[in-house]
Amino acid sequence: MIAASNLQDFLLTMPNLMIMLAAGTLISIISKALPKVAENPLAMRLKPAASSFLCAAMCLLPNAQPEDMSVTHKVLLGVILGALTSQAYKLFTQTVLGKDKRIKGA
Question: In the chain, where are the structural domains located?
Answer without folding.
Answer: 14-96
